[in-house]
Structure to design on (85 residues):
């Protein structure tokens, strides 16, 4: 997605910034425009800065989800073993 495309509106989400049908994946954020709208993008440099920040936020959230799932899986697996007394 380019700066000009953001200024004109995202063709995937039609400028909404999210896709409700993908709400189960990162709360439905549109990965094409990264939920950037013409209102909050002032320049090409600002666009790239915002995209980088949003990508890092999504990556961090994804890792938190993975960590939580792994933790749950390990606890479930450990529950099958008898505890030593």
């Amino acid at each position: 997605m380019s700066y000009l495309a953001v200024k004109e509106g995202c063709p995937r989400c039609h400028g909404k910034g999210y896709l409700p049908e993908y709400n189960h994946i990162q709360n439905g954020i549109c990965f094409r425009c990264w939920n950037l709208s013409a209102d909050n993008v002032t320049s090409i440099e600002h666009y790239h800065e915002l995209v980088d920040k949003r990508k890092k936020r999504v990556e961090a959230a994804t890792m938190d989800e993975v960590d939580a799932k792994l933790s749950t899986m390990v606890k479930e697996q450990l529950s099958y073993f008898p505890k030593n007394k």
Observations:
- Residues 3-57 form one domain.
- The chain has two helices and no strands.
- The chain has a mean pLDDT of 76.
